[in-house]
């Protein structure tokens, strides 16, 4: 029979363990992410400050001959003005990594790494990709700045799994990525995707794909997203054109954070952007995303974005079409909408910008959804709630956002630069329009790093989290029972 002095601590220990495990399973154990910003409003104000500085600079130069000679820069868009005013940008490509703003500002991509030139548009082998292909480049372990030797369309056989510290830089060529699976960023960091057409992405999988020089893994069926961000951080997607995919154009889930989505052209799609795994996935409370200077255009229906949990800063975007709603959410996300232009559709029942998805007003009335400096046209209206109903936030802010009246100017170059901004030109083989060839001097374009793949690469071991809890339970029970045995022995003596 157990001694009462043994039973009490054992039960306490077991009860504590039970609470911890249940809390974890119910989503209350890890409410923060290691890389989320502790003061997200400060990040939003910094974005406003950067826009204000660029606009002021443009106004100061508006009467000078300098701005007339530099039509590609001084637009007031702080990202573009950061690199496009340099006429020799092609010789200093990695300067782009210093130009991000918002939550993804720290995304380095392949900065500091070698230049890798994609010369082969094929994608035949997902296990042993051919040197010279995009797939070979993105799986490498080292930082790489990836450019393209010419206009090309890359028709993917399966998901393109991108490793950390990569920049896919399509400037100087017109590059399309399409086909099966499209771009997957899973458990990675520091990735920049710039100036790429992404379109007609279809579900794929139930196959084996190499994710690094030493790791091959089985992949189940993907959703058909254009760009899928899964458990990743420090991601920047800029000046891309996205359309016609099976699922989302950009989806970020499973605790992804530190993301900026900027200067993109979204068109011809139903569910545009999903931010958050599900309403009960607590790590997504640390999701922080900046959505800035994008054009949401023809043929869009909803989810621009659709948010769960987290803090989403929607700033200076041009929403010219939606059929259901523009911004939706559930599970109490913070929506900070500033200086956007919302043009409502003609349908009288689709004028509202916002939608609380499957939630009664009694539950969403305290959600912090703000509108500040937004321009509403054609009957559009934004329904604020929580802190957004008061002037408290505006008074606390030291920086006024630029009005939505400037959105056309700030988004005038949204989408791909150097070819069609959107995906209105549907590719069959390669694009027929020309583009300036990228400057690849010193890039080692003939040296594909001579990497030999091991054909017997093993599958990735199980995630540590999958074995952590069973080991913890066993260890604690072992300690408890041995402690009780020692305590009983001491009492008997």
TrEMBL record:
InterPro entries: AmbAllergen, Pec_lyase, Pectin_lyas_fold, Pectin_lyase_fold/virulence, PEL. Binds 1 Ca(2+) ion. Required for its activity. One of its GO terms (molecular function) is pectate lyase activity. Keywords: Calcium, Lyase, Membrane, Metal-binding, Signal, Transmembrane, Transmembrane helix. It catalyses: Eliminative cleavage of (1->4)-alpha-D-galacturonan to give oligosaccharides with 4-deoxy-alpha-D-galact-4-enuronosyl groups at their non-reducing ends. It comes from the Eukaryota. The chain crosses the membrane at residues 7-29, 467-489. Belongs to the polysaccharide lyase 1 family. Residues 151-348 form the Pectate lyase domain. Coiled coil: none annotated. Its cofactor is Ca(2+). This is Pectate lyase. Pfam families: Pectate_lyase_4. Pathway: Glycan metabolism; pectin degradation; 2-dehydro-3-deoxy-D-gluconate from pectin: step 2/5. Its EC number is 4.2.2.2.
């Amino acid at each position: 029979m157990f001694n009462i002095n043994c039973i009490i601590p054992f039960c306490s220990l077991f009860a504590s363990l039970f609470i911890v495990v249940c809390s974890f399973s119910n989503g209350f154990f890890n409410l923060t992410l290691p890389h989320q910003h502790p003061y997200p409003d400060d990040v939003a104000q910094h974005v406003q400050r950067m826009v204000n500085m660029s606009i002021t600079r443009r106004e100061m130069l508006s009467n000078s001959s300098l701005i007339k000679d530099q039509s590609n820069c001084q637009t007031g868009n702080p990202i573009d003005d950061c690199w496009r005013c340099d006429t020799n940008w092609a010789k200093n490509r990695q300067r782009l990594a210093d130009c991000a703003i918002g939550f993804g500002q720290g995304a380095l991509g392949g900065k500091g790494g070698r230049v890798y030139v994609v010369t082969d548009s094929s994608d035949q082998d997902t296990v042993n990709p051919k040197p010279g292909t995009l797939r070979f480049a993105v799986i490498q372990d080292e930082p790489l700045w990836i450019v393209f030797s010419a206009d090309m369309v890359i028709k993917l056989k399966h998901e393109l799994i991108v490793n950390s510290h990569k920049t896919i830089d399509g400037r100087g060529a017109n590059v399309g990525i399409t086909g099966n699976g499209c771009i997957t960023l899973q458990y990675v960091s520091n990735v920049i995707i710039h100036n790429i057409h992404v379109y007609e992405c279809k579900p794929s999988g139930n196959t084996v794909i190499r994710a690094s020089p030493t790791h091959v893994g089985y992949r189940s069926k993907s959703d058909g997203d254009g760009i899928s961000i899964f458990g990743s951080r420090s991601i920047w997607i800029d000046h891309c054109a996205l359309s016609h995919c099976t699922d989302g154009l950009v989806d970020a889930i499973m605790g992804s954070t530190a993301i900026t989505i900027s200067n993109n052209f979204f068109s011809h799609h139903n569910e545009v952007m999903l931010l958050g795994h599900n309403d009960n996935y607590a790590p997504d409370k640390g999701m922080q995303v900046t959505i800035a200077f994008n054009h949401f255009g023809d043929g869009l229906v909803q989810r621009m974005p659709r948010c769960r949990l987290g803090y989403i800063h929607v700033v200076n975007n041009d929403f010219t079409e939606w059929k259901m709603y523009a911004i939706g959410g559930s599970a109490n996300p913070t929506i900070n909408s500033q200086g956007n232009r919302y043009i409502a559709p003609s349908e009288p029942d689709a004028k509202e910008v916002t939608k609380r998805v499957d939630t009664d007003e009694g539950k969403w009335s305290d959600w912090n959804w703000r509108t500040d400096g937004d321009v509403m046209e054609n009957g559009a209206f934004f329904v604020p709630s929580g802190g957004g109903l008061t002037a408290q936030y505006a008074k606390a802010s030291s920086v006024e956002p630029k009005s939505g009246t400037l959105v056309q100017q700030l988004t005038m170059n949204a989408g791909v630069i150097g070819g069609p901004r959107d995906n209105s030109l549907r590719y069959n083989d390669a694009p027929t329009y020309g583009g300036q060839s990228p400057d690849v001097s010193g890039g080692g374009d003939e040296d594909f790093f001579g990497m030999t793949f091991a054909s017997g690469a093993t599958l990735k071991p199980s995630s540590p989290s999958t074995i952590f809890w069973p080991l913890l339970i066993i260890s604690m029970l072992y300690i408890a029972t041995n402690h009780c045995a020692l305590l009983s022995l001491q009492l008997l003596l």
